[in-house]
Design a protein that fits this description.
single chain, mainly alpha, two-stranded antiparallel ribbon, 8 helices, 2 strands, elongated, binds zinc ion
Amino acid sequence: MTDQQQEFLRLCIIEQEKYKDIAVKLNVPNSTLTQWYEELKEERQAIADIRNLYTRKKINLPFSEFYSWYIAPERKCHYCDITESQIKMMLETGRLDTKRIATRGRKLELDRKQPNLKYDDLDNLVLSCYWCNNAKTDTFTEDEFKKVGEVFKKIWKDRLEK
Ligand SMILES: [Zn+2]
């Protein structure tokens, strides 16, 4: 993807600006924008997935702010350190299974460190794996659950080395 295409994606999908404004800003004709739109289908889908999450959690911040937060951190579970690529690898090699996998597990989820606060406070949000998020519920504090995460981490390590 070129820098200009990246900027197009940002303006079009994240900021949701109009084609005619984007065409002026990037100094390219509408027809080029239409072509890029088609070419960047996968990238658009990835952003759309993040917007769905943003909408589902009713996050009361500009989407661009949430998006920057979401893509910035290293994508691993705050509690047990598992990454999405490690989860994928374990699933594909039969080291991990759950009936829930159709809906949960593959992707890291949003966890509120303090569950009583809203999702709007980005300092209160972390990425968590399904297994940690599911166990933490609204019962354990971040510090308490960090201890549980350490145990999960050891178990994942054993499974990853199998
Ligand atoms: Zn975890």
